[in-house]
């Protein structure tokens, strides 16, 4: 969709109007490049992560532990988006928060690049913290470039911005993955650090083109709130330090003492947030009804992401051990599978946008609920497809690469049906009191889904077993059918939102 944008004239006085980027404020170029390089670093490292965890030259962990670590890491990134948004709103402002986040991410990748298993998990933690801080604030700054929600260029600006995400995600496995798998794992992680370094440099050099609102702290903490926050943070940090020190000194510490609490938090916190909003007595009956409807979407999304995000863990580990990763006799790195989704997103997103517009003009565009249910069914179908290469591998043969491409294709179509709709319905159904927090709530659906995968792995469930894959596939299809069957009830709860 980015290619359809032209260098049109802009309204005088619009931030960055002196110079344009595809007809948009010049600051969009800064944020586009920053996000592209950040996503390059994130998806490059993520493509290597499960492979490094199971590789003999890596940490040589079993597939279950590797999947648990991967799932906990991804769930943490999305869980930390909420406190990341809070820092932007209450402490540093979006611009400073993004700059600090970029530095933390780069430091995390550099830590991963050190040839030591002891520092590896610290590096993962730093990348997760930095990604959470950045994710919630950089999109906010894109919005600051435009004159409110009614600016006709706003939607196009976000389209250009998200193209940067997919460009970075597409290139990362091809470059970082190849170097990590074929040359040296830690050199691959170092390339991820270089990518984030380029993004951070771009942000700092181009920040003069950003809107002044990006430096403003919208709702700064009072002195009393700062003191209270610091006390509570210090208390919880102290408890954690004492507890883990005691475990280490007593010889009882294992990796599960970190993984289990984090996965439980990934399930419990989303539930607590939804319950807190639902029980808020300040919400009127209409808002309460919308939140009841939103819970349907949230649970469905959690199931979707539980399966979808296994494309980077369960499917990747399967491809590493049991797939014939060749095209016309040429063998390619396993991490390259992670480029399939972003290239399909870039190819299919404009097609879907055109289809919805064409159907809308005829009065036949599917409702939000039908799109959501279809996306959920498709992600279930993708795992039914997964049963074929699993059966081939169980027969002692290597599964063809096209089976995995077909799975990723099906999941991508499901994503295009569910993810944009989920973002849209989240903003439409958000109570006014929680307008700025609801996008973080949507991200918590990803947290809940990935945390559930982590819990299953920690419990010893082999996610590459035919029976488990079939159960997950059936769960998604049944959930999608249930959402469709109860669509009228959910529509009634949504009120005027469509």
The arrangement of helices and strands along the chain is EEHHHHHHHHHHHEEEHHEHHHH
- Give the distance, in angstroms, between the N- and C-terminal Cα atoms: 25 Å
- Given helix and strand content, the structural type is mainly alpha
Assign a percent range to the helix content.
over 70%
**CATH C-level name of the largest domain:** Mainly Alpha
Strand content: under 5%
Radius of gyration: 22 Å
Named at the architecture level, the CATH assignment of the largest domain is Up-down Bundle
Please name the fourth-level CATH homologous superfamily of the largest domain: MFS general substrate transporter like domains
How would you write the strand order of the largest sheet? 1-2
Q: Which geometry do the CA atoms define? A: globular
Low-confidence stretches at least 5 residues in length (pLDDT < 50)?
1-17
Subcellular location: Cell membrane; Membrane
Protein name: MFS transporter
Keywords: Cell membrane, Membrane, Transmembrane, Transmembrane helix, Transport
InterPro entries: Dipep/tripep_permease, MFS_trans_sf, MFS_Transporters, POT_fam, PTR2_symporter_CS
How is this fold's topology laid out?
Blueprint: E1 20-21, E2 24-25, H1 27-54, H2 63-79, H3 81-90, H4 94-112, H5 117-144, H6 154-182, H7 185-206, H8 223-250, H9 256-278, H10 285-308, H11 314-322, E3 323-324, E4 326-327, E5 330-331, H12 340-361, H13 368-394, E6 399-400, H14 401-429, H15 438-458, H16 466-485, H17 487-494
Parallel strand pairs: 3-6
Antiparallel strand pairs: 1-2, 4-5
Helix pairs in contact: 1-2, 1-5, 1-6, 1-7, 2-5, 2-9, 2-15, 3-4, 3-5, 4-5, 4-7, 6-7, 6-12, 9-15, 10-13, 10-14, 10-15, 10-16, 10-17, 12-14, 13-14, 13-16, 14-15
Protein name: MFS transporter
GO molecular function, one term: peptide:proton symporter activity
Pfam families: PTR2
């Amino acid at each position: 969709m980015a290619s359809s944008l032209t260098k049109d004239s802009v309204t005088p006085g619009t931030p960055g109007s002196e110079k344009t980027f595809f007809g948009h404020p010049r600051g969009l170029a800064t944020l586009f490049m920053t996000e592209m390089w950040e996503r390059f670093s994130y998806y490059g490292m993520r493509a290597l992560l499960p492979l490094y965890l199971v590789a003999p030259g890596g940490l040589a962990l079993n597939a279950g532990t590797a999947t648990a670590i991967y799932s906990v890491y991804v769930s943490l990134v999305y869980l930390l988006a909420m406190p990341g948004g809070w820092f932007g709103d209450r402490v540093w402002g979006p611009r400073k928060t993004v700059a600090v986040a970029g530095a933390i991410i780069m430091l995390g990748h550099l830590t991963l690049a050190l040839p030591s298993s002891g520092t590896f998990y610290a590096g993962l933690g730093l990348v997760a913290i930095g990604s959470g801080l950045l994710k919630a604030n950089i999109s906010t700054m894109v919005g600051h470039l435009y004159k409110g929600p009614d600016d006709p260029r706003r939607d196009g600006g976000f389209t250009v911005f998200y193209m940067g995400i997919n460009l970075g995600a597409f290139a990362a496995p091809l470059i970082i993955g190849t170097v990590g798998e074929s040359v040296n794992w830690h050199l691959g992680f170092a390339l991820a650090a270089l990518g984030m370094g380029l993004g951070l440099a771009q942000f700092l050099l181009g920040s003069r083109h950003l809107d002044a609102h990006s430096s403003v702290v919208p709702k700064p903490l009072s002195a009393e709130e700062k003191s209270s926050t610091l006390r509570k943070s210090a208390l919880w940090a102290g408890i954690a330090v004492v507890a883990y020190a005691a475990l280490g000194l007593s010889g009882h510490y294992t990796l599960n003492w970190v993984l289990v609490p984090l996965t439980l938090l990934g399930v419990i916190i989303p539930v607590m947030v939804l319950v807190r909003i639902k029980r808020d007595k300040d919400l009127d009956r209409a808002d309460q009804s919308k939140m009841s409807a939103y819970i349907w979407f949230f649970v469905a999304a959690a199931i979707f992401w539980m399966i979808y995000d296994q494309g980077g863990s369960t499917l990747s580990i399967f491809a590493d051990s049991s797939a014939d990763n060749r095209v016309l006799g040429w063998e390619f790195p396993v991490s390259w599978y992670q480029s399939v989704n972003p290239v399909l997103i870039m190819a299919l997103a404009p097609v879907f946008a055109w289809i919805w517009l064409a159907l809308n003009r005829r009065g036949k565009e599917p409702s939000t609920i039908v799109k959501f249910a279809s996306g959920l069914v498709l992600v279930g179908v993708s795992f039914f497809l997964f049963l074929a290469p699993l059966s081939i591998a169980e027969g002692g043969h290597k599964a063809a690469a096209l089976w995995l491409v077909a799975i990723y294709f099906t999941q991508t179509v499901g994503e295009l049906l569910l993810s944009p709709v989920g973002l849209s319905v989240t903003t439409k159904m958000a109570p006014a009191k929680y307008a700025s927090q609801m996008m973080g709530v949507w991200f918590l659906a990803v947290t809940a889904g990935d945390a559930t995968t982590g819990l299953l792995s920690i419990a010893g469930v082999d996610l590459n077993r035919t029976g488990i894959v079939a159960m997950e596939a059936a769960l998604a299809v049944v959930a999608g059918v249930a959402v469709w069957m109860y669509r009228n009830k959910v529509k009634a709860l949504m009120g005027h939102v469509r």
